[in-house]
Design goal:
mainly alpha, Helix Hairpins, binds manganese (III) ion, globular, about 240 residues, minor pseudopilin epsh fold, 3-stranded antiparallel beta sheet, 9 helices
């Protein structure tokens, strides 16, 4: 049932963009596995890798459904529209390359390319509650960079709490291969040439009110503190080791 709904929403939201670009629907992904990069066609919204209620009680099902099928879907659709208007050939382009050169494009491209990339990463950064912690090379790098896992969590939580208005908190690997914590406004991200925080994001947290308001209202710190319980550290470790 859940998969059927996802599939229907997915097709409704991406079919138009796919047809407009001549991309065959038959090659669209039907189910996301834990991938380190993004979808086979990264300009399209990938199916959510878990049910809407899978992250309860941390993320309630209604928030997840609205977030995925309305907010994130519209970033994907608007990204497709911007690519058509600005003559970006999505079959021969990389989302990352667009982000690296985002200053050359319109605000619509910046907002929606960022919004799409950020949400595709965000879904993968979460998994049903496991209470897991980072292990292996990532755990060692976190200890080395921030002193301890708890110190890292405090610094990352503060980045999310202190981002005024809407935006994202990030853990990135910068050009010197160092782990850095920071935040960006709106749908900006650390891959953008316009961003003060620069690097490859390996963990992202959406702190827009639409991500938490139904359950947490104005209490963003409560949302962030709870969110640690659904971080998919296995995915973050794979991204860390792939960069
Ligand atoms: Mn969002």
């Amino acid at each position: 049932m859940q998969n059927k709904q996802n599939r229907r929403a997915f097709l409704a939201n991406t079919g138009k963009a796919a047809l407009a670009t001549g991309l065959s629907l038959t090659i669209l992904p039907t189910m996301a596995n834990a991938f380190v990069g993004f979808a086979p066609n990264p300009f399209l919204q990938n199916t959510l890798p878990y049910a809407y209620n899978a992250l309860e009680p941390i993320i309630d099902a209604m928030t997840m459904e609205i977030h995925f099928t309305k907010h994130a879907a519209s970033y994907a659709k608007n990204l497709g529209d911007a690519c058509i208007a600005e003559k970006v050939d999505i079959n021969n382009s990389k989302v990352e390359d667009l982000l690296h050169n985002i200053s050359k494009y319109s605000p619509k491209m910046r907002n929606n390319c960022g919004g799409h990339y950020n949400h595709e990463l965000f879904w993968q950064c979460m998994a049903p509650a496991s209470g897991a912690k980072p292990e292996g090379k990532l755990a060692a790098a976190i200890d080395q960079s921030f002193g301890s896992f708890d110190a890292f969590k405090t610094q990352f939580t503060d980045a999310g709490k202190n981002r005024f208005g809407s935006g994202w908190a990030w853990l990135v690997i910068n050009a010197d291969k160092k782990l850095v914590i920071g935040s960006t406004p709106n749908q900006d991200n650390p891959l953008m040439d316009t961003s003060d925080l620069k690097g490859s994001p390996i963990l992202g947290l959406d702190v827009w009110e639409h991500a938490y308001y139904l359950k947490y209202q104005n209490k963003r710190p409560d949302y962030i503190n709870a969110w640690w319980n659904v971080v998919n550290w296995r995915f973050v470790e794979k991204r860390f080791e792939s960069l």
